[in-house]
């Protein structure tokens, strides 16, 4: 009888413990357990901290006599450390790119493009194109801190000789060839090698070469803590960029009429939930399908632009928001945000747990005008800072490799 009771009680006990852990996790990642009204606490004239549920926005501002808001906050975790490391990286970091000729049968996949990249996965091509012209490249592999595997996942995907189903075999063959032709892979088993991929297929293309997945540095757009193919602190998050035409957009914060904006495909439960709650709202514009106005007009006309998880955690919407001066609202759990070790995202974006989609309007309306102006000012600061440092910023996670250079 006792054994029967134990047989019954053990699974029940495990179930209760699991439920408690789940509730504990939700209470720290969601605002549903916070029942207090929005509270504003002002400690002095220069520090204002707003609590909207668990969302905390800390801003350091002061108002000049002419009424203009001046932002004293920094978008970096530690600007001085960043500048020092950036200078050291520029001084000493060297990268060896495995060489290939124009007559190579797969030169379209291995060489940098000679045109202006475009499309949803342009980050790959931009990285290779700018890296090729940079001072980081060395022709002497004995001086190299890192070795770049130059294959393009996006171009392999569209090459009829390879296609989606043939990428894994191509990568396996490529690693076999360089490990037999050169000694550098075998010296570290690929630990000082890296590749760049923006399409989600790239993260799963190394299954036939486990050493690449485990040892090599994966610089990918699909940087999710939730997926085993991505290893945080070894791999790096690549921002997804879709080049947009036109000159400098209008950044004026006071001319933005919509509270929030999202447009995209209905390809995930998170987006379905967004549509369910805010599909007919007059302040948050959520649209799936063809827009009545241009995408650019909607971004420029909105205070907050929603980045909502689709098939993957990443889309080009964050960079779109930054480019058009709109504050990104990130609704994608487990997203290892680009440059998170360098940039302090809470100073120029709003991060909302997917469970808190029903509270989205309350959260956004709870941000004061002063806080909004600081966030928008920081958006422009990040935009201007990163625009000329794309490849260098991507390489910042690898700075420790060159710190020991002679």
TrEMBL record:
Keywords: Glycosyltransferase, Golgi apparatus, Membrane, Signal-anchor, Transferase, Transmembrane, Transmembrane helix. The keyword Transmembrane applies. It is a single-pass type II membrane protein. GO terms for cellular component: Golgi membrane. One of its GO terms (molecular function) is glycosyltransferase activity. The chain crosses the membrane at residues 7-28. The keyword Phosphoprotein does not apply. It holds the Pfam family Exostosin_GT47. Residues 90-366 form the Exostosin GT47 domain. This is Exostosin GT47 domain-containing protein. It comes from Solanum commersonii (Commerson's wild potato).
